[in-house]
Recover the amino acids of this structure.
């Protein structure tokens, strides 16, 4: 892979692709798209570097939003929280960052780093720590490689901020989550400061390129009046899990997460069937009416509007909405025992054991 630049016009595809690959979570990327477009318009395009070209001694820092995506529908960021978090982390470390990272390849967190990169002039690395979105801070490939999430800085739109040092990445999640709740349910953070050598060891590569390509596929298929589901399944080696209409939705924001489930009545080839999809910020498990899994975390469950073809996030689910759910295989790192322990169904309290997507019946 080679370096490339991202301009204002590219952010539409990146936001659309991020909304799809974010498995329903990560927050609505529309807000981050506007922030990134504004910053790029003011400061210029963002350079994206392949991970293999990053010098080993560089300081590389992810910046992201933390909290419940439902909160971001009404509680908009002021725009400078992520930049302030980065500046304070740099001050604590006593050195400037050399590059930025997307912590997850989905939602708002696939767009906000572009805004910070444009404003600071720093390059972004083509990759992320999840290959999708997950709800908790420790759920990244960097944790499996022994990278500490702290020191971490958390900042809100009111000007509050704090530095967190914790004994483990799980404790970082717990401490930061409680602060996020007190900050109104959403905050911006800079964390997992790491060397270029650590980046090359742990990052899931080329996901920013993939997000842009996915967005281009969706935009292109819609321009031809085609639903993009089939093209996405083909390009991403996925499976069409179900097409159905939401007949019941349970959603609540608690503990800094959007938790709930959706019940869907099947449509088209799935007529007469009933499905259930559970989520915690992200879609985590899809089940048929016999409670047999169709797809299970850490494999991806992505949704598009069955009529318009645009990605659907968990906070956009509503009664009567027709959606197509697509399953995608996760990165091989997540299928190791360490990955399953970190983000598998047992961690989230689901009784179903993890089975790879391609081994599950439809």
């Amino acid at each position: 892979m080679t370096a490339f630049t991202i301009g204002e016009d590219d952010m539409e595809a990146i936001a659309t692709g991020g909304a799809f690959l974010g498995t329903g979570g990560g927050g609505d990327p529309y807000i981050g798209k506007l922030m990134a477009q504004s910053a790029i318009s003011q400061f210029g395009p963002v350079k994206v570097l392949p991970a293999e070209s990053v010098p080993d001694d560089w300081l590389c820092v992810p910046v992201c939003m933390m909290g419940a995506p439902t909160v971001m529908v009404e509680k908009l960021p002021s725009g400078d929280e992520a930049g302030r978090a980065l500046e304070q982390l740099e001050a604590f470390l006593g050195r400037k960052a050399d590059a930025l990272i997307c912590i997850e390849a989905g939602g708002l967190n696939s767009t906000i780093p572009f805004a910070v990169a444009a404003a600071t002039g720093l390059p972004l690395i083509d990759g992320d720590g999840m290959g999708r979105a997950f709800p908790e801070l420790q759920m990244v490939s960097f944790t499996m490689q022994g990278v500490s999430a702290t020191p971490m800085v958390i900042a809100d739109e009111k000007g509050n901020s704090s530095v967190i040092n914790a004994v483990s990445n799980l404790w970082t999640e717990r401490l930061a989550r409680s602060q996020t709740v007190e900050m109104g349910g959403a905050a911006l953070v800079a964390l997992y400061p790491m060397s270029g050598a650590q980046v090359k060891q742990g990052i899931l590569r080329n996901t920013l390129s993939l997000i842009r390509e996915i967005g281009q596929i969706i935009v292109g298929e819609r321009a031809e009046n085609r639903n993009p589901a089939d093209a996405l399944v083909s390009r991403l080696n996925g499976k069409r899990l179900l097409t159905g209409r939401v007949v019941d939705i349970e959603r609540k924001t608690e503990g800094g997460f959007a938790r709930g489930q959706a019940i869907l009545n099947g449509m088209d080839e799935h007529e007469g069937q009933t499905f259930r999809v559970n989520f915690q910020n992200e879609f985590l498990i899809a089940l048929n009416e016999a409670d047999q899994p169709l797809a299970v975390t850490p494999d991806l469950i992505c949704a598009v509007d069955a009529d318009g073809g645009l990605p659907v996030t968990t906070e956009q689910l509503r009664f009567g909405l027709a959606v197509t759910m697509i399953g995608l295989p996760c990165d091989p790192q997540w299928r190791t025992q360490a990955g399953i322990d970190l983000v598998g169904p047992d961690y989230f309290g689901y009784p179903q054991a993890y089975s790879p997507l391609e081994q599950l019946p439809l």
Summary: The chain has a mean pLDDT of 93. The two ends are 36 Å apart (CA to CA).
